[in-house]
Amino acid sequence: MYLLSHHYEALDVLKRFVVEVQTQLDRRVKTLRTNYGHEYLSHIFKEFCEEKDIRRQLKIPNTPQQNGMAERRNRTLLGKIRSMMAHANLAISFWGDALLTAAFIINHVPSKSVSTTPYELWHGRKPSLEHLCPWRSTGCPLQ
Fold first, then answer.
1. What's the Rg (C-alpha) of the chain?
2. Do the Cβ atoms of 40 and 62 come closer than 8 Å?
3. CA distance 80 to 95
4. How far does CA 79 lie from the centroid of its chain?
5. Which residues contact 75 (CB under 8 A, 6 or more apart)?
6. How far apart are CA 41 and CA 25, in angstroms?
7. What's the maximum distance between 2 C-alpha atoms anywhere in the chain?
8. Using CA atoms in the order 97, 101, 102, 104, what is the torsion angle rounded to 10 degrees?
9. Is the per-residue pLDDT at 113 higher than 80?
10. What is the pLDDT of residue 143?
């Protein structure tokens, strides 16, 4: 997961992700599904996708059902973020940290629908959760 401060950072993040997929998994990104945001429609974005042979799929505006899995994941993440922020009574400036933490947890714990975690699929080994501490703790000793 990558946090963006501005929309124009999307191309740089995509480039980093493509390199990460190639180097860590020895695979390539084949398809990219986006909305009609200006950051995805620029000439240089289109050129990069053509250069890397990435097929672009633009979803029709106001049709979240076209991206159902991502929409469900976003709802799950938002629920976890709100819960964590409320429990820890943190300022909104910590929203990005809460998002990264929630995504980390989701990617490292099993779910009912899939027998392996996303971490296992990416790295080929089971994740360790021994280093996790409660979100609000201040002096959590790492083992």
1. 18
2. no
3. 11
4. 15
5. none
6. 28
7. 50
8. 140
9. no
10. 38
User: Considering the chain, what percentage of its residues have pLDDT values greater than 90?
Assistant: 36
Mean pLDDT of 74-81: 91
For the record, the structure tokens of 37 come out as: 């945001």
- Amino acid identity of residue 82, one-letter, is R
Alpha-helical runs (H) found in the chain: 10-25, 38-41, 43-51, 68-88, 95-108, 118-123
Beta bridge partners of 57: 33
Nearest Cα residue to 77 out of 62, 48, 98? 98
Q: Please, which residues have CB within 8 angstroms of residue 20's CB and are 6 or more apart in sequence?
A: none
Q: Domains along the chain? A: 7-62 (3.30.420.10), 75-124 (no CATH)
pLDDT in the model for residue 140: 63
Taking CA atoms, 118 is separated from 15, 69, 88, 107, 127, in Å, by 21, 14, 27, 5, 10
Q: pTM (2 decimals)?
A: 0.75
Enumerate the β-bridge partners of residue 33: 57
**Is the pLDDT confidence value at 76 over 50?**
yes
The pLDDT assigned to 117 comes to 86
More confident residue, 39 or 111: 39
Q: Which residue has the tokens 């201040």?
A: 138
Which two structure tokens, joined as six digits, stand for 78?
């938002």
Q: Which two tokens stand for residue 23?
A: 């180097």
